[in-house]
Design brief:
Elements lengths: L1 E3 H11 L2 H6 L5 H14 L1 E3 L15 H9 L4 E3 L3 H4 L7 H9 L4 E3 L1 H8 L3
Parallel strand pairs: 1-2, 3-4
Length: 119
């Protein structure tokens, strides 16, 4: 798994939101710390990820694509419908992403689990 400081900050932000904590009461501050430590232990941290991709519709997500391009990722795993639609999108940004990262597949966590043979 590839990680950048921007992605790590986003993960920490989401897991510490009150709305997420209310939905998942087991997600205590200690549980978040343990999860983040595990993520860091299992990840390759990329420190200098260049900004090469701009998605005008959702600029807050650019860091995800920059990391995928920089690390030559095979998969970008997400539940975000707007991101999952990019492989078939015909916008200039989607076409640029395909040129910059031709081997990138954008898949759901379930699709990744299926690929890895876990259920």
């Amino acid at each position: 798994m590839n990680l950048s400081s921007a992605l790590l900050a986003e993960i920490q932000d989401v897991l510490n939101r009150d709305s997420v904590r209310r939905k998942f009461p087991a997600l205590t501050p200690d549980a978040v710390k343990i999860f983040i430590a595990d993520v860091l232990d299992q990840s390759k941290m990329s420190s200098a990820v260049p900004n090469v991709f701009k998605w005008p519709q959702h600029p807050d997500d650019d860091h995800l694509f920059d990391l995928a391009i920089h690390s030559k990722a095979r998969y970008l795993v997400t539940w975000e419908t707007r991101i999952l639609k990019l492989p078939t999108d015909v916008t200039p940004a989607a076409e640029l992403l395909r040129r910059l990262s031709p081997n990138l597949s954008i898949i759901t966590p379930k699709q990744l689990a299926d690929l890895l043979g876990t259920k």
